[in-house]
């Protein structure tokens, strides 16, 4: 048996063993007294969600490997070890929701298939950390902005209120105030460009509808997962 076949080097096995440990932990809580159980309801619910996310990740990983989209020797790379550790730590400690998990998974799988970067690139891990630090609302706003930036006709706007209104409708958030909350957070992460003018009313919409080069590249990287999944 060569080294890539050993369970401790195989990502699929790491995921399966994590699922087993999770199930054992839930069973232990269920067997405890009612007081302990009542204090652990939130933990149990989050554990079930983690179980679902891990199962989804494991199924996709196995599918991509069987189809040859993920090379066997990729699991030996430092990039993969760092990204896997970041993703598992995210599931363990961050109480992820579906939106945040999906974007983390997309970056992880895109890196593994080596469609948007090679195994020596530092970007996948940095992109994972950026995505981990975003709320689901920030991700929704970022995605809506990217969809407009990639469209054939980018709206001609100069005012911040115009931009907020367009994103509120495109994202489904409806309220411009909600978009403005997430706008501020995305600016701090250097994913959206800052407003201009002393009254903060103006914006520079071009070339990517306020996405910075970092924001645009991150969105392109996430989108590469969708291209890879179509070809898989």
Question: What can be said about this structure in brief?
Answer:
With 232 residues, this protein is mostly helical.
Description of the molecule:
- With 232 residues, this protein is an all-alpha fold.
- Helix content is 66%, strand content 0%.
- The protein folds into 2 domains: 3-133, no CATH class; 136-223, Winged helix-like DNA-binding domain superfamily/Winged helix DNA-binding domain (Arc Repressor Mutant, subunit A).
- Helix 5 (98-113) runs antiparallel to helix 6 (123-132).
Topology:
Blueprint: H1 11-30, H2 34-39, H3 41-66, H4 78-93, H5 98-113, H6 123-132, H7 136-149, H8 160-171, H9 176-188, H10 213-231
Give the overall average pLDDT. Answer: 83
Low-confidence stretches: 1-9
DSSP summary: helix tally: 10
Task: Provide the domain count.
Answer: 2
Give me the count of strands: 0
**Into which percentage range does the β-strand content fall?**
under 5%
- Residue share in helix: 55-70%
Query: SS-based structural class?
Result: mainly alpha
Principal-axis shape: elongated
**End-to-end CA span:** 28 Å
As a whole number of angstroms, the C-alpha radius of gyration is: 20 Å
Biggest sheet layout: none
